[in-house]
Amino acid sequence: MDSTRPHILVIGAGWAGYILSQQLDDTKFRITVVSPHQTFAYTPLLASAATGLFFSRLAEEPIRRAHRHITYYRALATSADLTRKTVTCAPSVLQPDGRDVVDTENLFAVEYDIVIIAPGCVNQTFNTPGAAEHCFFLKTVSDAEAIKAKLLSLLEVASLPTTTREHAKELLHIAVVGGGPTGVELSAELTDLFDEVSKTYPHLAGLPSITIHDVAPEILGVFHAKLKTHALQTFKKHGVEVKTNSHILKIDEGALYTKEDGRIPAGMVAWATGNKQCDFVESLHGVSKGTRLGRVLTDQRLRMLKDDQSILENVYALGDAADIYDRGLPTTAEVAVQKAEYLVNILNSSPSGLVQSPSPFTYKQRRMVAYVGGTDGVIMGKQDWTGEAAWLAWRSGSLGWTRSWRRKAMILASWAWNLLGGREIARR
Ligand SMILES: Cc1cc2nc3c(=O)[nH]c(=O)nc-3n(C[C@H](O)[C@H](O)[C@H](O)COP(=O)(O)OP(=O)(O)OC[C@H]3O[C@@H](n4cnc5c(N)ncnc54)[C@H](O)[C@@H]3O)c2cc1C
């Protein structure tokens, strides 16, 4: 390998890191990617995967590709010395039972010329007792698979002759904590799933229920009022209860506890209340960070800022882990993708990757879509839409997120197959 080419180290292979790993010019740079899973997750597809709309492996893409010359380490970046241009990493070792174990005994260092920091965020539980232990999250394909397995298990336990109808009702109550787009879409997909499994589990008719809890006074906070009302009406029509101003006190096996209602039995509690910074970002000292989410701050060219607001040369940051100092951009794939494509253009267009004064990054806000179940959705853009047209736009948008034609074709085939034969979860 030609060691005279600048070495770019990409930390994280989510929406931002994956695009960089696949689109940076591998004839111009030596590229190393460090990320704890060897695949990248299409997060907008996870709620569908969790409810068996298609095989969950279709919601991910491998980082290693035959035609790409990159080095990939299945590891976590644990600390960085930005002066010495070195990042310390810990292997993330896949166990036979599917768990990842971080091997802190075998740390290794990676030196770089340019580092791009994109490790995303982790789930925010606000230290709610029992949340980390008992709740189901939806950030990775493994999370989606865990939800699917739990749903199937609940349906089967509820079907046993030893399970009373009363207990079956409790088991089939799914509580979703968080009324943002992720919680809303998961609830919508669950509604469709329960509707469909009523054919394969007719003895459970009328027992499944879904409740969305949010501490805020309304769900889908950023959407226009008319769209929020539409979402609420659709949920009501499908029997989804929405509890706003609901304060979760703790979670334990089989129940959540709220300040307002006390103990509420639930077979599964899905937690979708947003993001907080990962340990690696927290470990970065002497750099500028935002006050609300603790994201590292960059200038408008995505160069990371020191805590005195001067630029750290050859250190870029993007995705959910970073924000531009005066912007407050949302933590979305839209932002991560646009920033990654901007950085790819800058780095690929210069011989050394060191462009003196590229034009600043500008974010183009695209329409915002949320699925609310039963072929209904809400879209906020130049015009607001609801109903079947919004659902169709959402479905085609889901396909748009996938970056490989093979995945698109397989997802389309799964949808067609579901129409004919039902979802995998109901058939397995
Ligand atoms: C269920 C769900 C649905 C969503 N739907 C939408 C949508 O419809 N539209 C939209 O715009 N946004 C959506 N989002 C938000 C979107 O997924 C995120 O904004 C986006 O993933 C951020 O990209 P990222 O690259 O910063 O981080 P991520 O995609 O989270 O990737 C970060 C990567 O870094 C790795 N990593 C973490 N720590 C380290 C470390 N220390 N060292 C090395 N690697 C590390 C992680 O394992 C991961 O692979 C959704 C999110 C979820 C969870």
TrEMBL record:
Q: What is this protein called?
A: FAD/NAD(P)-binding domain-containing protein
Query: Which GO CC annotations does the UniProt entry carry?
Result: mitochondrion
**Which family does the entry's similarity section mention?**
Belongs to the NADH dehydrogenase family.
Which InterPro entries has this protein been placed in? FAD/NAD-bd_sf, FAD/NAD-binding_dom, NDH-2
Q: Which Gene3D superfamilies match?
A: 3.50.50.100
What are the protein's GO molecular function terms?
NADH dehydrogenase activity
FAD/NAD(P)-binding domain span: 7-340
Q: What is the lineage of its organism?
A: Eukaryota, Fungi, Dikarya, Basidiomycota, Agaricomycotina
Q: Name one Pfam family in it.
A: Pyr_redox_2
Q: Flavoprotein: is it a keyword of this entry?
A: yes
Q: Which UniProt keywords apply?
A: FAD, Flavoprotein, NAD, Oxidoreductase
